[in-house]
Design brief:
binds iron/sulfur cluster; four-stranded mixed sheet; binds fe (iii) ion; globular; alpha+beta
Amino acid sequence: MMTARQYEESLRKLELEVYMFGKRIENVVDDPILRPSMNAVAATYELAGRPEWAELMTAVSHLTGKRINRFCHIHQNRDDLVKKSKMGRMLGGHTACCFQRCVGMDALNALSIVTYDIDAKCGTKYNERFLKFLAHVQENDLTCDGAMTDPKGDRSLAPRQQTDPDLYLHVVEERPDGIVVSGAKAHQTGAVNSHEIIVMPTVAMREEDKDYAVSFAVPSDTQGITYIIGRQSCDTRKLEAGRMDVGNSFFGGHEALVIFDHLFVPWERVFMYREYEFTGPLVEKFASYHRQSYACKVGVGDVLIGATQTIAEYNGAAKASHIKDKIIEMNQLNETLYCGCIACASEGHPEPSGTYLVDTLLANVHKQNVTRFPYEIARLAQDIAGGLMVTLPSEADLRSPDVGKWIEKYYRGVEGVPVEDRMRILRLIENLTLGSAAVGYLTESMHGAGSPQAQRIMISRLVDLKGKQRKAKRLCGIATESGGSRSGEA
Ligand code: SF4
Ligand code: FE
């Protein structure tokens, strides 16, 4: 396994073509805006090396029997699934941001199932290729970007109907030694902190769209890949000399548009090619795993609740009964999220390939809750923090020989708490609820791993409504047809 330092050095060796604010970024690792996001991924390496977290952060490879980082592991049983949820919460609490590495883990696990299933039906050799790639990832402790979301153009049109065919990533040429692809993947979390990009189709494809039914992995610095970093609110605060106004001065996240321009992929890196009937299952399995992964937001919630209780104490309001009640509610909402990610893991099952998959219904219910509860938790945090959170002068004002004395005088709270500490905790709450970390805590909770409607469609598909009706009808004496299944059975 790599140490955090070795991970950082490994990124320095990559020759990525990255743009931000219209300019090429030559040194991604040391860029002040991007560095906090590198730090967050580095934490997944650092904590894996600490004995107290070894049980959660590492696992034994089913390929080699060696101890590996859990982010490179294929879940072998329910215990692995539960540990994945616990690891997500722990890391969310450690970084209070998106630590980015789960997407690749979820892509690896989904592909371990689907490549096996395609081979079983079509007699192909995708699983063998995939396992070779997996061994490479495990052996070198790599970070993978799981790239699923295409730009999608006109949402009412199928991939082949778009005016520009590249709006969905597709195969433009087949060669004896591989394929050539063009297109892009949007909103790619942690893209420039990754060693490998694992591409998957974004929706279930039909036969007419089979050139779009493609999955493969390429090293992130392959020629022909361009990264354009997305803006976050308050991002330029990271360029300032002081660190206090950033709120979270250690960790952050980033998203990028990743463009693939006539990119060559050798056959040994291709895991799906035109098997359109397996695009739906791949999308669903990846989405279910990633919906489980949203245990990270529970960990971020822990930090926000801790910050809120602290500001209540600093404000001298912690003993008020309505404040106590609001803190209880924040905890109740946050622990309800935790119930969901633990439940879908505990109810997991083995797929034909041997990989354990979470309970898809519960994973979708969990993610649906994630689209709502963090907003309510954030609302309560802002309620308790008070308006000062958004009217607070800057760190430079606090340090100013001219006006610093006025800040010290008028922003005092309870006796004994330095004004600077009060400002620091307010900045953290601002960072999490409407600053750059709100990208991770709120908007990503809403749209990451699929927007809310995607989960509602899955819930309606997976729930046994007829079975529930039969139960009701039987109890009140209405004649029913026989039959039944999973969640509706008595
Ligand atoms: Fe992992 Fe959460 Fe970031 Fe998704 S949002 S990559 S689950 S930390
Ligand atoms: Fe995400």
